[in-house]
Every structure is written in structure tokens, then in C-alpha cells.
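lol ok so funny story. i was supposed to be doing the assay writeup but got distracted and ended up predicting the structure for this chain instead. priorities right. anyway since i did it might as well share w the group, maybe its usefull for someone
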Amino acid sequence: MLLDTASLYYRAYFGVPDSVKAPDGTPVNAVRGLLDFIGRLVQDHHPDDLVACMDADWRPHWRVELIPSYKAHRVARETESGPDVEETPDTLAPQVPIIEAALDAFGIARVGVAGYEADDVIGTLTARASGPVDIVTGDRDLYQLVDDARQRRVLYPLKGVGMLQLTDEAWLREKYGVDGAGYADLALLRGDPSDGLPGVPGVGEKTAAKLLDAYGDLAGIIAAIDDPKSKLTPTQRRRLDESRPYLAVAPKVVQVASDVPLPPFDPALPRVPAQPEVVDALAHRWGLGGAVSRLSSALLA
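and the output, tada:
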């Protein structure tokens, strides 16, 4: 089980009331929400391995070089070296170190790699896995990793932590008209304002699905631009032709990496906290006794 950790603690932050605070008044709603979410996932799905994948760089320079608008609207401050600073709610940013400390104290593997997003870590671990993989994320970009033959699926939170959409290829075909491998092409054709991806003008989700159905993949669509016998409309042909520079680089930006140099780590799900004294101290300091107890019980089950 691979966790898109930032995606999940953002959801926890907005899903758990900010009245959940530590004894000193510091909001800890994202911390408690994430720990409860992990406890529920362990309780319901019993993974053998669990990895909290982290955004060591939420906006990698190599992606920005290809598409400068990539996540540009979410930059709070640019930096000369290292990742740009992302806009984050004032009361969420201080909770992230507490989340990291709690994961480490429990012994839940936490993996991030400089220059890469959590998506890339997830893509690499998915490519390396020899058994089934459940990817837990609120980011639809990871639908591209769904693969029934290799038992790769996405668990997408719909409401709180109790309702997950089990995303397999049948669901993707019903919803979008593509399988997992086709989802990245669909995403780059239609664009994604939340990630600063412009897409092809005039090509929305339905048109993108129809083009992929007709021509197979992005390479087939590009070949159709130059084929006078293809059934592209004159407007589609013109817009796709004008978008060639974007289409040449977008796949590398949209597709998750599968070759990230990962550090050594132990993915095995712990049965008891690795550092029980630290867990107890965090629970006392931040008023997390209930969430810590629930996660500890789930690990033991």
C-alpha cells in the first residue's frame, strides 16, 4: 500500500474541524485526520507493506523547464536553490513536521527523493513491486498506474476516510473511456488547470476520449494530423497541429517517473511502534492520544 501522503493530509486538514487542537491551542486536525485515515486503511485492507510517499520537491525543475506554467499558480515564493515554496494554509504547514515525526516514531516507512514528487516515488515503487499494489491518493493523475493484469489499483477517498472509490480498469473505461495506460494521454490532451497544464485548446475530456478511441494513443493522434485520410475535423487538425510543441513535452511532465533512485528502507508494516516512548511523547504534547491508540490497535490486529 502506497500513500500519496501530502494529498491525504490536505484532505484530512479540510475534512477534520480546525477546532481539533493540541493542549497549547495549536491546530492538529491534519495530524489526527491522517493518523486515523492510516489506521482505517490498515484495519480494512491489511497491507503487508505500507509506504508513506513524500513530496521532496512538489514542483521539480525538470518539469517546469518543459512546461513553465506547471503548478506556477501555487508558488508562494521562488527560491534560488531547492524547491519553490508552495502556498499552504497557515495552520497546515506547522503540522507537517508533526506528521513526519509521528510516522517515523511508528516505524511507517517515509520515502521522498530530492527533485521528485511523491507521484514519482509511487510510480517507481509500483514498477518494482512483484505483487498487488494499492495506491491511496486524492490525485487523479495516479489513475495512469491502474493495471488490472498486474493488480494495480487506486483507492480514491470520496468522503472522509470511510468511503473509498476502488479504481480499476473497468471503472476507468466506464468513467473516461480509457484504461490506466491511456489516462496520461487523456489528461495531457484535456489539460489540468489545477496543475497549470494548458492542454489542447478546444479538446475537453470527451473529445480527448473520442480521439484516443479513434487513434489509439497520443502517437496515433499526432500521426493523424498529417494523414489526409484521417477523420479529424479541420478545427481539430489545426488545433492539434498548433499544439505540437506542447504535445512533444507534455508526456514527460504528466507521466510519473518509474526510475527514481530510492534510498534503502524497510516497507514492512510495523505491528508495534518502533519508538513507543516517542509516540507517547507526541501523543501527550499534541493531544493525539485517541488517534495514536486507534492506529496502534489497527497495527496489532
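The CA atoms of residues 73 and 120 lie 21 Å apart. The first helix runs from residue 5 to 15.
back to the writeup now i swear
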